[in-house]
Design goal:
single chain; 176 residues; mainly beta; eight-stranded antiparallel beta sheet; 7% helix
């Protein structure tokens, strides 16, 4: 069984560290959805498109990041709080295992910690070995966050490493 952050207690809006705010939903935000652009390296596209966010058909893939606390260490993290039902089971397992911290590189990014040790299952031989989130632009020039997923697969005894991308809009207030 892979590590999961599903039992991490969520922080109240007034407890969210300021550096987390550009990346998380508060109680006033709806889930966001995967949008274009999405990309899978040509060496892995036939293996990964079935699992990968953004390649799952016409229904939107929704998710929500929140600020939460590790119940063992008391350390705050950014974790996934909700996924729509149309995520592939193995990719959903990875999403539930993600724990992010803000960093700079030189611009603000999110870095996943421990995903390579989380015990998630492979997808056609590919394992998620790293993950970061950066701010970018979609094909219309609108602001998006882009998840850059690092994958590794052993091919002919040698590690093959690739990066794939999916994009999502920053969180918007709940519409009434």
């Amino acid at each position: 069984m892979a590590d999961s952050t599903q039992n991490y207690p969520r922080l109240a809006d007034n407890e969210i560290p300021p550096e987390f705010l550009p990346w998380v939903a508060t109680s006033q935000h709806a889930a966001t959805e995967v949008t274009d652009p999405c990309y899978i390296d040509h060496r892995a596209v036939d293996d990964l498109y079935f699992y990968h966010p953004g390649f799952r058909g016409s229904l939107p893939q929704l998710f929500k990041h929140v600020a939460a606390v590790d119940p063992v260490t008391g350390e705050p993290w950014i974790v996934v709080d909700a996924l729509s039902n149309n995520w592939d089971e193995k990719m959903a397992e990875v999403m539930w295992a993600l724990k992010f911290k803000p960093s700079t590189d030189p611009n603000p990014i999110l870095l996943a910690h421990g995903i390579h040790e989380a015990g998630t299952r492979d997808m056609h031989g590919w394992l998620v070995t790293g993950w970061k989130v950066a701010t970018g632009r979609d094909t219309h020039g609108d602001k998006v966050h882009q998840d850059l997923i690092e994958w590794t697969k052993t091919v002919n005894g040698q590690p093959l490493e690739i990066v794939s991308i999916f994009s999502w809009r920053p969180y918007a207030p709940v519409s009434v």
